[in-house]
Design a protein that fits this description.
heterodimer; A: 2 domains; 5-stranded parallel sheet; 19 helices; B: alpha/beta; Methyltransferase, Methionine Synthase (B12-binding Domains), Chain A, domain 1; 9 helices; 5 strands
C-alpha cells in the first residue's frame, strides 16, 4: 500500500466511527469513552467519535512493548525488528492420524502441547491450543492458562476470556507467577486476545474483560476478523476499513479507561468462500488483508500481531501445510511482529500434534529466511576468497566450519538419499512429525514452576 | 612429556580440527620418543574415527570432517618418515579419480582425504580419468580398491565402463570397485555390478574398510 492509501483507509475508518459509530455493549467501555468525549447513546449502545477524538486517544498507545516470558530469556521485544510465532488457539477437537478421526479436545492436550511448545525453538508464545472439554466450562480458560503457566516458560497469550471476573482471575494468576501485581503491570507475562464482532460491534463480556486488561496493563491483541463479503465489504479496502475502525475503537476505549494500556493490532481477517459463505483463512485474499493489517498497524504505530499460519484445510497434512507455507512469508516480509499460530487445522478448530511440528518446520524456514543480510569483513571473506583462489574448495576452512554451524537445520528431514528413506520404513512426514512430537514430550523437561506458585494458581482456579 | 599425554595431545588436535596443534603434537611425540606407529594407531586413528562417528550421528558437519582429515595429514607428515619401511602399515591402496568426461573434483577430494586420514594409501588420479588409467594404475600400485566418482548423469556410464573393462581383462575379482557422486545411487551401483556405493565420505570410508578385508 502507498502511504496515501494507508491514509485513505485511516480517514475512512474515522469517518465510519464519526458518522455510523460502533456498538459498544460494555457499560464500562462506554462510560470511559463518554468521559473522554465520545458521543454515547446508552439505549442503542452506539458510540460515535467526534473528529479528532480517535487520534488524540491513540497517542497514548505504546508503540514498543516487551512481551515477557516466565523467565527473562523468553522476553520478546516488539520494536519493529522481530518476528515471533504463537501456537494457534482454542481448538475444540484433537486429530487422530491413525484412525483419521477427530475427538473432543481435553485438558491433557493443553498440558502436552505446552510442554512440546516449550521445547520448540521457533515457537515464542504459547496460547492454550484447545478448549478442555473435560473440565467444567466455567474454568475452561483458567485451567488452560494454569496448564500453560506450569508447563512452559514462554510468554502466554490467553484467548476466549468472556467475563471481567475471568480476566481478573488471570491477572491474579500472572501476578502470582511474576511475583506481584506491580511487577506484572511492568512485566507483560500474559497478553490477551480480544475479538471484535464484525461489523462494528464490541461484545459486552469480552470488552468488559478488555477494560480489566487495560487497568492492569495486560497487552491486548485486538483481533478484528471481518470476513470479506460477509462481515466486511467484498473488497480489500472496505474490509480493511471496517477492521481498522473496530481496532481503533477498542484501542481508544482501553486508552480512555487507562492511558498507556498496551494494545496490539492483532487482526485475523479472511474471505468467505464465495459459494458457501464458509470462513476461508487460507485464501490469497486473506494474505492481502493480513498485509494490509500490518501496514495499518504501522501507520498508527501500534505493535502488530496480524495474520500468520492457520489455514482452512479440514484435516491436517498436505493442504494445511501448503496453506501455512504460503500464508506466512509475505507477512514476515512486511514486518508482522507476532504471527499466529501453529498446530491447528480447519479454521483453528482442530488440534493436530503432527501439524504442530510441520508448522513449526514451516515457521523455522520462514524465520530463518527473513533476516537482515549482514555485510562486514567476516561475511565478505575477501581474504579467504583470495586464499582459496580458482578451482579450490571452501570446505576445509575454519571460516566455513564456524559459519556452517549457523545454517538452518530442519527438524523433520535431512538430505539423506532415497535409499535411506526406504531403509527407514518409507515413513510419511505425518508419521515423522508425530514421532518428533512424542519424543519432545518424553525428553523435554520444562523449567518447573515453584510449588508455592503452583499451589496459588490451583487456589485461584478452585475459587471460581 | 609421557606417552599417555602425547597420545592425548594428538587426539585432541584432531578433535579440535587444528592442523597446527596436530603438527606440534606429532613433533612432541618425536621429542618424547613415542613410537611413531603407536602415535598414529593409538593417538590419531581413534580420534579421526570418533570424528567420523560424530559425523554419522549428524553431530558435526562436513567441514569438521575435512579439517580433522587435514589435521591428521599434518601429523602424519611428521610421523610417517620415521616409521621403518618394513613396519609401514596401510589398510590397502585405493586408486581414485573422477571418470572420463567429468571434471568435478570436490567430492572426490573429500573422499580421498578421508581415506588417507583413515589409514589408506591413496593414489588420486585427479579428474577426467580414462577408463584404462584406473585399471593400469591399480595394477601398478597393487591396489585393492578402485574408486570412481561421477557427477553428471551423462558421465556415470563411465563407471560401468571400468567394470566392463575389468571383466574383459578377466580381472574383475582382483579389485573392490566403489562408485559415488551426485547422480549415483545404491541401485545404480548394484545394476552395474560395483561392490558398493559411497553415499558420502564417511560411508565410503566404511565401505573401503570392508573391501580392504575382502
Amino acid at each position: 500500500m502507498k502511504e496515501s492509501d494507508r491514509k485513505k483507509v485511516h480517514e475512512a475508518s474515522l469517518d465510519v466511527l464519526e458518522t455510523v459509530g460502533i456498538r459498544v455493549m460494555s457499560k464500562d467501555a462506554r462510560a470511559a469513552l463518554k468521559d473522554a468525549g465520545a458521543e454515547v447513546d446508552d439505549s442503542s449502545a452506539v458510540v460515535k467519535f467526534p473528529e479528532g477524538l480517535v487520534d488524540s486517544l491513540m497517542r497514548t498507545v505504546p508503540s514498543k512493548i516487551v512481551l515477557a516470558g516466565r523467565t527473562k530469556e523468553h522476553d520478546l521485544p516488539l520494536d519493529g525488528t522481530h518476528h515471533y510465532y504463537t501456537t494457534d488457539g482454542c481448538g475444540i477437537y484433537t486429530w487422530d492420524q491413525k484412525t483419521q478421526t477427530r475427538n473432543e479436545s481435553v485438558l491433557a492436550d493443553i498440558t502436552k502441547t505446552a510442554i512440546i511448545g516449550d521445547g520448540l525453538p521457533y515457537l515464542s508464545i504459547y496460547e492454550p491450543m484447545v478448549v478442555a472439554n473435560d473440565v467444567p466450562s466455567k474454568i475452561h480458560v483458567l485451567s488452560g492458562v494454569r496448564e500453560a503457566m506450569r508447563n512452559t516458560s514462554k510468554h502466554i497469550e490467553t484467548e476466549s476470556t468472556t467475563t471481567p471476573d475471568e480476566a481478573r482471575a488471570q491477572v491474579r494468576m500472572a501476578a502470582e507467577v511474576v511475583g506481584s501485581a506491580e511487577e506484572m503491570r511492568k512485566r507483560h507475562y500474559i497478553s490477551a486476545m480480544v475479538c471484535t464482532i464484525s461489523p462494528l460491534v464490541l461484545d459486552a463480556g469480552a470488552t468488559d474483560a478488555a477494560m480489566v486488561w487495560a487497568d492492569n496493563h495486560v497487552p491486548v491483541h485486538i483481533t478484528g476478523m471481518a470476513s470479506m463479503g460477509l462481515s466486511g465489504p467484498a473488497t480489500i479496502g472496505g474490509a480493511l476499513t471496517v477492521n481498522h475502525a473496530e481496532t481503533l475503537a477498542l484501542a481508544c476505549a482501553m486508552q480512555a479507561r487507562s492511558p498507556g494500556a498496551p494494545a496490539l493490532y492483532g487482526s485475523v481477517q479472511s474471505s468467505m468462500d464465495a459459494r458457501t459463505g464458509a470462513y476461508n483463512s487460507g485464501s490469497p485474499e486473506t494474505i492481502l488483508l493480513s498485509i494490509g493489517n500490518v501496514e495499518m498497524a504501522k501507520h498508527c504505530r501500534m505493535p502488530c500481531s496480524a495474520g500468520g499460519t492457520g489455514g482452512s484445510s479440514r484435516i491436517p497434512g498436505l493442504r494445511a501445510s501448503i496453506e501455512n507455507a504460503v500464508l506466512s512469508p509475505p507477512l514476515a516480509a512486511v514486518g508482522s511482529e507476532v504471527m499466529n499460530g501453529i498446530g491447528l487445522a480447519d479454521g483453528s478448530t482442530l488440534l493436530s500434534y503432527e501439524q504442530m511440528i510441520l508448522d513449526h518446520e514451516i515457521v523455522g524456514l520462514i524465520l530463518n529466511s527473513h533476516r537482515a543480510i549482514e555485510i562486514d569483513d567476516d561475511s565478505l571473506a575477501l581474504d579467504l576468497i583470495k586464499k582459496v583462489g580458482i578451482g579450490g574448495t571452501y570446505l576445509a576452512e575454519m571460516h566455513t566450519l564456524k559459519n556452517v554451524r549457523g545454517f538452518y537445520s530442519p527438524m523433520l528431514w535431512d538430505m539423506s538419499p532415497f535409499e535411506s528413506w526406504v531403509a527407514g520404513g518409507k515413513k510419511d512426514l505425518m508419521d515423522v512429525a508425530l514421532e518428533k512430537a512424542q519424543k519432545i514430550l518424553s525428553d523435554h523437561k520444562p523449567e518447573p514452576l515453584d510449588a508455592d506458585k503452583t499451589k496459588a494458581l490451583d487456589e485461584i482456579v478452585a475459587g471460581v | 612429556m609421557d606417552e599417555k599425554n602425547v597420545l592425548k595431545m594428538l587426539g585432541n588436535a584432531i578433535e579440535t580440527y587444528d592442523s597446527g596443534a596436530a603438527e606440534k603434537a606429532a613433533k612432541e611425540a618425536v621429542k618424547s620418543k613415542v613410537d611413531p606407529l603407536k602415535a598414529i594407531e593409538a593417538g590419531l586413528a581413534p580420534a579421526i574415527e570418533r570424528v567420523g562417528d560424530k559425523f554419522e550421528k549428524m553431530e558435526v558437519y562436513l567441514p569438521e570432517l575435512m579439517l580433522a582429515a587435514d589435521a591428521m595429514k599434518s601429523a602424519m607428515t611428521v610421523l610417517m618418515p620415521l616409521i621403518p619401511k618394513d613396519k609401514k602399515v596401510s589398510k590397502a591402496t585405493v586408486v581414485i579419480g573422477t571418470v572420463q568426461g567429468d571434471i568435478h573434483e570436490i567430492g572426490k577430494n573429500i573422499v580421498s582425504n578421508m581415506l588417507m586420514a583413515n589409514g589408506f594409501d591413496v593414489v588420486d588420479l585427479g579428474v577426467n580419468v580414462k577408463t584404462s588409467a584406473f585399471v593400469d594404475e591399480a595394477k601398478r600400485t597393487k591396489a585393492k580398491i578402485i574408486g570412481a566418482s561421477a557427477l553428471m548423469s551423462s558421465t556415470i556410464g563411465s563407471q560401468k565402463d571400468i567394470i566392463d573393462y575389468l571383466v574383459s581383462l578377466k580381472e574383475r575379482k582382483k579389485y573392490g570397485l566403489m562408485v559415488g557422486g551426485g547422480p549415483t545411487t545404491g541401485e545404480w551401483a548394484k545394476e552395474i555390478g560395483a561392490d558398493g556405493w559411497g553415499e558420502d565420505a564417511a560411508s565410503t570410508v566404511k565401505l573401503a574398510n570392508k573391501l580392504s578385508k575382502g
